[in-house]
TrEMBL record:
Keywords: Phosphoprotein, Two-component regulatory system. Pfam families: LytTR, Response_reg. Residues 6-121 form the Response regulatory domain. Residues 145-212 form the HTH LytTR-type domain. The modification 4-aspartylphosphate is found at residue 56. The lineage of its organism: Bacteria, Pseudomonadati, Bacteroidota, Flavobacteriia, Flavobacteriales. Transmembrane segments: none annotated. InterPro entries: Bact_response_regulator, CheY-like_superfamily, LytTR_DNA-bd_dom, Sig_transdc_resp-reg_receiver. This is Response regulator. It comes from the Bacteria.
Length: 244
């Protein structure tokens, strides 16, 4: 690898942490450090921005690994790989909500670690290439986005967007004044738009919940457009509607 992937290890068992550090170094990665507490991991991540954080869920101290990840993600988008010996559903659900790149269950062997890190590094490289391509067609700010339209970048306020519809590898942004087709998948658009007002309701639709006119059992309506709701997204949508 031309530029070494930098990895922060957060593990309160120093024997395990030292073993991981040796393995990663032997595989050609750069170990940025070993932290044993969630509070220290947060400070380290904010100051140094590692490429990957190997994060034990069950840390000693005031906060656990999941809580540390939440704090880190408030200011940094750093891929997380959880290390865990705890496989109960409640813990898994909390960890999953932080969108980790992978889980490694303890005890693990060298091959488990090697393969998981390699897969995550590949994902990071793919996402970086995708983001570079996105920047030429789609840029997100706090309250607006810029999209390439007719050879120029056009500003769209998030409040103006009614819904966004997938069209294979493209997304069609629908506003009350016009439509804007961008060469970016809906999955990527969903990742980039951080506003809590935009909710995925179907594999092909993302809606601005402030623009909803009708919420029925199996569909929504926005500006007379009927939009289907998938069962897998319905509960998430209803929770958001109850909070606004």
């Amino acid at each position: 690898m031309n530029q070494k992937t930098r990895i922060l290890i957060v593990e309160d068992d120093m024997i395990i942490a030292a073993n991981i550090s040796v393995q990663l170094s032997n595989l050609g990665y750069e170990v940025m450090g070993i932290e044993t507490r969630g509070e220290e991991a947060i400070l380290h991540a904010r100051a140094n921005t590692p490429d990957i954080i190997l994060l034990d869920i069950n840390l000693k101290g005031a906060i656990n690994g999941i809580e540390a990840a939440i704090e880190i993600q408030k200011s940094k988008k750093i891929p997380i790989i959880y290390l865990t010996a705890n496989s109960d559903e409640a813990t898994f659900a909390k960890a999953k909500a932080t969108h980790p790149y992978a889980f490694i269950s303890k005890p693990f062997n060298n091959l488990d670690l090697q393969r998981t890190i390699a897969l995550v590094v590949d994902q990071i490289h793919e996402n970086s290439a995708e983001v570079k391509d996105i920047s030429e067609h789609f840029e997100v700010l706090v309250d607006r986005i810029f999209v390439r339209h007719n050879g120029r970048m056009v500003k769209l306020l998030l409040d103006e967007i009614l819904y966004i519809e997938a069209d294979r590898n493209y997304s069609n942004i629908i506003t009350s004044s016009g439509n804007y087709l961008i060469s970016t998948t809906l999955k990527v658009v969903e990742k980039e738009i951080k506003s809590h007002m935009f909710i995925r309701v179907h594999r092909s639709y993302m809606v601005n919940i402030a623009k909803l006119d009708v919420v029925a059992d199996n569909h929504l309506e926005i500006n007379r457009k009927v939009i289907p709701i998938s069962k897998s997204f319905k509960e998430h949508l209803l929770k958001h509607l109850h909070t606004i």
